[in-house]
């Protein structure tokens, strides 16, 4: 397939927005698939108890399957949980099972509860290097729609935050709280963390509102916002029920083209990272 530019070092990106239904999971899996199709090695961590990213990537995530829950709560290594995506052998996935829904509470009483995911990811990347395995180019962490301990773990793990924004009326509401949280984490837990990327999702250029919201986002976040926005596309929403990303389900659909273009843009603006 087409070849994307390899980053100088592994880029670890947390896909977050405490609003539900804005396209976090869709963005995570389709960017990951695009990057993998472009020849890069990708690790997706499904950090949402709903396990939607695991479903969309065709990954077994029945209760009891080694998952991010065991990594966070029981100290299992990432190597013991990864599964390769059936579509792309160079796309690895740490699944989420329903067991993760208890983790938010179970983590509270554990030592170093905020740094558990980071340690696991750092160890995994180092182990691969020591074993002479190909370097992971991109790690994408899909987050639940909340700012609890699971999302906190993702923020401590990532260097970059990718915020999907749905172009609708309340799009910017809640964004300031998200940015405030990121600032706090920067100050106390992860000085490297910053918002590197904003992606406009489910964009409908025919409506004034979407156009207005998009230009407002670009006004505030000119450098962070990708030039490519993702259009609303039925194929994008159908793909998960086939256990596929739209990248392989309907490669020529507008949604697939947009995600591939967004991925290419992401790889080319590493300097901004
Ligand atoms: P989140 O992870 O933020 O909760 P999702 O990625 O699950 O959001 O998206 C919410 C819903 O919107 C899902 O049903 C998904 O299939 C749909 N969706 C996301 N992006 C698009 C798109 N570009 N076109 C059509 N439907 C989309
Ligand atoms: Mg989701």
Automatic annotation (TrEMBL):
CDD domains: ParAB_family (cd02042)
Gene3D superfamilies per UniProt: P-loop containing nucleotide triphosphate hydrolases
Short name of any one Pfam family annotated for the protein: AAA_31
Domain AAA, chain residue ranges per copy: 11-194
Leader sequence segment: none
Family: Belongs to the ParA family.
PANTHER family: P-LOOP CONTAINING NUCLEOSIDE TRIPHOSPHATE HYDROLASE (PTHR13696), PARA FAMILY PROTEIN CT_582 (PTHR13696:SF52)
Function of the molecule: May play a role in septum formation.
Stated name of the protein: ParA family protein
Protein species of origin: Sanguibacter inulinus
């Amino acid at each position: 397939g087409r070849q994307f530019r390899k980053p100088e070092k592994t880029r670890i990106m947390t896909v977050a927005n405490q609003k539900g239904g804005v396209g976090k999971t869709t963005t995570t899996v389709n960017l990951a698939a695009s990057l993998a199709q472009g020849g890069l090695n990708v690790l997706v961590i499904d950090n949402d108890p709903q396990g939607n990213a695991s479903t969309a990537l065709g990954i077994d995530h029945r209760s009891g399957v080694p998952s991010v829950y065991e990594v966070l709560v029981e100290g299992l290594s990432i190597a013991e949980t990864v599964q390769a995506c059936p579509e792309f052998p160079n796309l690895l996935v740490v699944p989420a099972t329903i067991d993760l829904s208890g983790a938010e509470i179970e983590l509270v009483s554990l030592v170093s509860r905020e740094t558990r995911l980071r340690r696991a990811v750092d160890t995994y990347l180092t182990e691969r290097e020591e074993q002479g395995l190909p370097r992971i180019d991109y790690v994408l962490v899909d987050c639940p729609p909340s700012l609890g301990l699971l999302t906190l773990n993702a923020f401590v793990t990532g260097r970059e935050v990718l915020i999907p924004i749905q172009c609708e009326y309340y799009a910017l509401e809640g964004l300031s709280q998200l940015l405030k949280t990121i600032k706090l984490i920067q100050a106390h837990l992860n000085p490297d963390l910053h918002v590197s990327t904003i992606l406009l999702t489910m964009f409908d250029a025919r409506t004034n509102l979407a156009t207005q919201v998009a230009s407002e986002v670009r006004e505030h976040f000119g450098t962070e916002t990708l030039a490519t926005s993702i259009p609303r596309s039925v194929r994008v929403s159908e793909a998960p029920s086939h256990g596929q990303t739209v990248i392989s389900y309907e490669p020529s659909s507008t949604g697939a083209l947009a995600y591939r273009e967004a991925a290419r843009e992401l790889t080319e603006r590493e300097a901004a990272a």
